[in-house]
């Protein structure tokens, strides 16, 4: 492919996803609620979680957007690919793997490639639980993968940053 063809494909994808020249995302991805929950043991992590945070991915574009994720078996998907943690030493967000990078989409498991089409204004929600003791003050970002109908190209989106409150703090 020529350089011109590559540029044209990227431009068409941006139009299909409804992004502007300023690089705005066609979706909004943020924490929409947080609440205390009864402590539950997470055995494989040996911690109790007591804080439930609900995140939302909303299609803010004028076009359909595909959100990819794992089939939960109830007609919904879990869109989270990665939980990124802030590295204070490097002032950057770290992926939870040795390469500190996302797995290339072509190599990603088919388990994570179930589709949910969001029409304009539609949204998808999911929740995660944290420990306000073990995760106190932890800065986190979740990632998900989106695409446009009739396009094989996808790209990673990131949630807004969320800071886990400590057990002695009142949430905002």
Characterize the structure shown.
With 172 residues, this protein is mainly beta. The protein is built from 1 helix and 11 strands; from the N terminus they run αβββββββββββ. The protein has one helix spanning 3-17, and strands at 27-42, 47-59, 65-71, 77-78, 82-87, 92-94, 114-118, 123-130, 139-147, 154-158, 162-163. The strands form 2 sheets. Strands 3, 4, 5, 6, 7, 9, 10 and 11 form an 8-stranded antiparallel beta sheet that branches. A 3-stranded antiparallel beta sheet has the order 1-2-8, with no helix packed on it. It is globular and about 50 Å long. The model is unreliable at 1-22 (pLDDT under 50).
Notable characteristics:
172 residues; mainly beta; 8-stranded antiparallel sheet; 3-stranded antiparallel sheet; 11 strands; 44% strand; globular
Query: What is the tally of beta strands?
Result: 11
How many helices? The count is: 1
Succession of helices and strands: HEEEEEEEEEEE
The percent range for helix content is under 10%
Extract low-pLDDT stretches. Answer: 1-22
Structural class: mainly beta
Distance between the termini: 51 Å
Rounded mean pLDDT score: 87
Largest sheet: 8 strands, antiparallel
| Oligomeric form | single chain
Fraction of residues in β-strands: 35-45%
Radius of gyration: 18 Å
Give the overall shape. Answer: globular
């Amino acid at each position: 492919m020529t350089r011109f063809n590559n540029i044209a494909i990227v431009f068409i994808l941006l139009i299909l996803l409804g992004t502007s020249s300023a690089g705005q995302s066609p979706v909004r991805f943020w924490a929409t609620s947080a609440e205390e929950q009864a402590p539950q043991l997470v055995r494989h992590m040996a911690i109790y979680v007591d804080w439930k945070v609900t995140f939302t991915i909303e299609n803010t574009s004028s076009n359909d957007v595909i959100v990819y994720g794992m089939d939960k078996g109830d007609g919904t998907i879990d869109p989270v690919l990665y939980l990124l943690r802030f590295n204070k030493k490097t002032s950057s967000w770290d992926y939870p793997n040795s390469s500190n990078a996302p797995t290339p989409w072509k190599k990603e498991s088919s388990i994570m490639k179930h589709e949910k089409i969001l029409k304009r204004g539609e949204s998808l929600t999911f929740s995660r639980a944290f420990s306000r003791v073990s995760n106190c003050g932890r800065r986190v970002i979740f990632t998900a993968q989106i695409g446009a109908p009739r396009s094989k190209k996808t790209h990673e989106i990131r949630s807004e940053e969320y800071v886990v409150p400590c057990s002695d703090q009142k949430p905002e």
